[in-house]
Hints:
Elements: E1 3-21, E2 24-38, E3 41-47, H1 60-79, H2 87-94, H3 100-121, H4 125-129, E4 139-142, H5 150-162, E5 167-171, H6 178-187, E6 192-196, H7 206-210, E7 219-221, H8 229-238, E8 243-244
Parallel strand pairs: 4-5, 5-6, 6-7, 7-8
Antiparallel strand pairs: 1-2, 2-3
Amino acid sequence: MRVDGVEVVVAELELRRPVRSAGLVHSDKTTVFLRVVTDRGSGWGECAASADARDPDPTLDEVEPLLVDRVLGRFLARGGSGTLPAPSTLARDLLEGASAGERAVVAALEMAVFDVVLRAEGFSLAAALGAVRREVESGALVGIPDERETGPLLEAAEAAVGAGARRLRVKIEPGWDHRPLGALRAALPEAVLLADANGAFAPAAAPGLRSLDDYGLACLEQPFGPHDLAAHRALGDAMDTPIGLDESLW
């Protein structure tokens, strides 16, 4: 396939309702999309960077200059004679020595190139990945309510479950952990609950976090800072609840 161009689209999306996590309130989601255009059609990719990202994740201000100045130039040059590179080669060719922002752009570019190829060949993403299920279970995010009241928390959770959510990812922070999880487990005893701390706890809080085992969580996500892998491992060894990493995945 011949590459005719790459379009960068910045979309300012407003959330239906603000979502509060540890230390942040998210009211919008500005997103960068890439459209790779070829002689056999086009494909789309989405960049995961956000305006209010926390270290080590890149922000939109970091990512946008990298799109044209660094990554897309290298992508077009690597194709040679305008030929679309194979999706399987992009990460190998473009990620060496890449910064966090460049990695986010490469991921979006890989997504777009993969989309082009699948559309041109008439394959779905599910078929390409070997998926056999025809349905995907959905989940919902439950943020930290204003004034840390359990009433709005339960209302949001029950609405999500009523709409078909099979699991609930619950935002927690110091001082808002046992109370929300206990209330949700009592109200929704069969629900699949995940607690997401966004790195808000210090390793000294490990004894209190260990007792979150009482709520039968599917996982505890990112309790400590992104660079403290040793503390995550120690907590994982001490808990029955699996530890999930997010910001640490650099």
